[in-house]
Design a protein that fits this description.
Shape: elongated
Number of domains: 2
Distance between the termini: 59 Å
Strand order of the largest sheet: 1-5-6-11-10-9-7-8
CATH topology of the largest domain: BirA Bifunctional Protein, domain 2
CATH architecture of the largest domain: 2-Layer Sandwich
CATH superfamily of the largest domain: Bira Bifunctional Protein, Domain 2
Radius of gyration: 28 Å
Structural class: alpha+beta
CATH class of the largest domain: Alpha Beta
Helix content: 25-40%
Strand content: 15-25%
Length: 435
């Protein structure tokens, strides 16, 4: 006897999203799209696979993403023996910029764009952090000035509020300014001197980054390095007049809109392309996974990836982590259920039943037809398990009279009455509310 084939499983850290959980994802995305469209943002979709060089140049070689986490591979060679170096996208901003540059999309005006999609990073899977994860993000490209920074931050705060989260209770906004390249260079030199003076305290990862990417050392989660990091030179003290004016302009607009925030001088974000304003929404409800959304301005990235110089600002939000937060604070809705469940004792009545159900669906009622034939007891059990508020019983006697019995499943009374099939379409408002 042949051996049973081994069951194949998903890659660790890359998860299936099945009903009813998938309905929560749809709810989340629909709520977000509603807000995004009110701000004039349009959807963009880019390939999952991009040239590896895009992320090396865009994110930075000395970053955890490129050094440790990115899924990079060499494609099969073509007939000339040449093979492309490709990568699964670990983030989306670089891909959006590549698309805008490739298609000259910023030639005539700036663009406000948003995206949803999977990203990939090779890291140890844990709650809220997966190898395939999903992000929503916005990118405002081609716009100068602090007003767009403020608009993007206002959009992010509104997204969180309209998902049911409360500012100060469930999340808080942190801001910083990374200044211009020359200001960062002056700060970098001072920071390296500070780190060299405390080299005996540094862990191996910090020592490795001390000269290549010292700003990232301040982002350490090592408790033993916190006092050293707190005493480090602050980038805000190195900002010139123009950078301060930009940052103060952002703050003035947020203040006028009543948005609460704190200045976090150690906020640097995890990618190399940021300048001027950076921001994060953080929570203390998810343990170590505290950042639920973050971004900033990245004015040099478009030129860095081969396009004409243009400013840009945006943010990304992890959907898995957002769903965890919504569930933790109790604002995640229950999965949707059908309005009604159709029970059909005999297959002989199915032609009439199908016509009636299509009339209900045409009128906006969600109704599920019990598959195949089974006992009435079994069908009622399925109807109750579906969560539907009403059962529609299409018995032979009812159909002979051109009627259907409507039975309440959720009001505790089990009340039922008959309706004519000719009146089916008119039931829609009552089935969706209360007959």
């Amino acid at each position: 006897m042949a051996a049973k084939p081994e069951k194949l499983l998903a890659v660790k850290g890359m998860n299936d999203i099945l009903p009813p959980e998938s309905a929560r994802w749809e709810w989340l995305e629909a709520r977000m799209r509603s807000v995004l469209q009110r701000y004039g943002y349009q959807n963009v979709r880019t390939p999952i696979v991009e040239p590896t060089a895009l992320f090396v140049r865009g994110i930075g070689e000395v970053t955890d993403i490129v050094e440790k986490e990115m899924y990079a591979f060499e494609d099969r060679a073509d007939k000339h023996g040449q093979a492309e170096h490709l990568a699964l996208r670990p983030e989306m901003t670089a891909g959006v910029v590549r698309a805008m540059t490739e298609h000259n999309f910023l030639r005539d005006s700036g663009r406000r764009l948003y995206y949803f999609g999977p990203m990939f990073r090779r890291e140890r899977p844990q709650k809220g952090r997966y190898r395939q994860f999903h992000q929503m993000g916005v990118e405002a490209l081609g716009f100068h000035g602090p007003d767009v920074d403020a608009e993007v931050i206002l959009l992010g705060s509104r997204l969180l509020r309209e998902l049911g989260l409360k500012d100060g209770e469930h999340f808080r906004l942190e801001l910083n300014c990374l200044g211009a390249p020359d200001e960062r260079r002056a700060h970098r030199e001072a920071l390296i001197r500070h780190l060299e003076a405390h080299v005996d305290l540094l862990d191996e990862d910090s020592k490795r980054r001390m000269h290549s990417n010292p700003l990232r050392v301040l982002d350490t989660k090592n408790p033993a390095l916190q006092d050293m990091a707190n005493a480090a030179p602050k980038l805000l003290d190195f900002l010139g007049e123009a950078s301060l004016a930009h940052f103060n302009g952002v703050r003035a607009m947020l203040d006028a809109a009543g948005v609460r925030y704190t200045i976090n001088p150690r906020l640097v974000r995890g990618l190399d392309y940021y300048n001027l304003t950076v921001f994060e929404w953080v929570t203390d409800k998810l343990g170590s996974q505290g950042t639920v959304c973050g971004g900033g301005r990245y004015d040099g990235l478009i030129e860095q990836l081969g396009g004409a110089p243009a400013p840009a600002v945006g943010f990304g939000m992890g959907l898995e982590r957002m769903l965890l937060l919504l569930e933790e604070v109790g604002v995640l809705p229950e999965a949707p259920v059908p309005d009604a469940y159709a029970i059909v004792p005999s297959a002989d009545g199915l032609p009439q039943v199908m016509v009636a159900l299509e009339a209900l669906r045409e009128a906006g009622v969600s109704v599920v037809l019990h598959p195949g034939q089974s006992s009435m007891k079994s069908q009622f059990k399925k109807a109750d398990g579906s969560g539907a508020r009403y059962a529609l019983i299409f018995g032979a006697d009812e159909l002979a009279r051109g009627e259907v019995t409507v039975k309440a499943l959720r009001d505790g009374t089990g009340a039922q009455h008959s309706e004519t099939l000719a009146a089916v379409a008119s039931w829609a408002p009552r089935l969706k509310s209360n007959i």
